[in-house]
Amino acid sequence: MPAWTDQLRFAYQPVVNLTTGAVAALEILARPERGDVLAQAHRSPALDVELAALAVRHASHRETLLPLHVNLFAATAAELPELTALRTAVRATGRRPCEITLDLTGPYTHVPARGLLEAVAGLRADGFRICADGVGDGDVPLRLLGDLAPDVIKLDASLCTDLDARPGRAAVVRTVRQLCDELGGLLAVEGVETERSFAAVRRAGAQLGQGHLFGPPARRPTAEVFVPSQAPSAQAPSAQVAPAPAPSGTPAGPPVAQFVQPAALLPVTASAEEVRSRLTGLPDVSGVLLVDADGVPVRAVDRDRFLLSLSGRYGHALYADRPALRLGDRPRTVGADATAWEVLDVIADGDRDRTGDDVAVVDERGRCVGVVHLADILRALAESRVEEAARLNPLTRLPGSDAVNGEVDRRIAQGRAFAVSWLDVDGFKQVNDGAGFAAGDELIRTVGAALARAASGDAACRVGHIGGDDFLVLTDPDGLDAVAAAVLDVPWSAGGRTVTLSLATVVCPAGAVTGHAEAAAALAPLKKAAKGLAGASWVLSRHGTAQHEVRRGRVAAPAAGPANVPPPPGAATGELPEAATGVPPEAATGVPPEAATGVPPEEMSSRHGREVRTTH
Asked: Which residue ranges form the domains of the chain, and what is each CATH number?
């Protein structure tokens, strides 16, 4: 062993799951007592790998089952992709690569991107997890970050300082969370020092956190940390960061990756006595997974049932020296990309006496990456339902604008084309004044139900009730006709009064807008144009063009008479001349329409119609 290792110590800092409050992993930090070994490691990839290997060996003496985060320079991974010393240490300590997350740190400036990506692909194939560390204050290019698709993106502490007082930084954190959702990774933040910063990073969507609030780096690892209690509204970031919609037929819900806990793993050849020792030595472990050489779960041993079998008459004599495989059950597994609702489906399909068993989480190759506890899943789903109910409009039970806006931003980030529509009731105040607010409420409920039915048949459609008689509809461009038909091609009435609806739509090609606010601004003049038409109306435009198309509705009759002619009787009351006097307009003024304008009435109407169809 080199002499410099005598002056090297290691500290452990917990990586906390901000949803469950549990320690999800431990980051091992090298702490040389003298000299500058870390600077030397930056210049020497072989030394950097040796430091990582020493960290893994050091953790093996601390009797922890927690996964480990081990620091490694990005240049080291690109130059020495085999990481021979680290792989040897992992095998020698009985660890599996899936329990090791490599925190790749900068600088990235002179790192060959192709070499780094190939090295990361090889490490992933062996089971190692990849974390992009120090994002936000380093030099990692966004292009490279997207190509790496890390399992964890860890934001530098400097980006999260005063997050609640700096909306720009909070917006950056939310955007990175959205990127993590798209890439299938988790968002971690460093520098959580106070309860105030904890609440801020939670609101911004962070899922993992490190900092002195939970526990400073210490010589001995800890699984017990301080996590501030939070009201459900502060715990759920879903109001600010809209989760990606689940595929058709798949239940939505929080991703299971938020709830993964370390698993107690033993080889499939382990004896019952070895399992008993593991369970009695770790009282917080609820079971052991027996895995094959590749880390794939073969049997699940539940603590209570296993210890009950051994404590029975002759139980120890019968089972102690025999394979624990006999006392295990078929493991219940879900993929790492599953949702919380899918975990409940797996539990519901099993035996009733195994309802409380842990569920193993596996990667795409079936290797165990952890377990999830039923209690954590139920707690999170209950909180998400409370949050969802709080965001729904009490009249229509539809979400508000936040949900639609978040989904618009997600599609913009994906580079997808979409269409946003604004629907409202014509003359809704007159409906309430004339038919009563109860009739108005019933009309709004019925319109909302029609939109919800239309959306239920289209996985790409989202509907929001933004207040009063205003609704937002988000669809793919080819889904517009079905929504329009659902609300415009049916008769509406309230309190015996006929009612019409107006629909304004802006189609946004991929890359046309940068955010939901820009799309909403484009809707305002279109709504005004739609309200200017008679009957059920629909006006549509493509973003960036100065024209719009009238798809429903007709041009309203001019409200004023010819120039320099006094308004006819009844104009103040909104009555047409013939309604007030029984005399046709030309007879009342003595001037036929074509004499006043020089254009026959039918041509004037035709020209005006073309004008509405081509300009705002």
From this structure: 3-230 (3.20.20.450), 259-379 (3.10.580.10), 397-555 (3.30.70.270), 571-614 (no CATH)
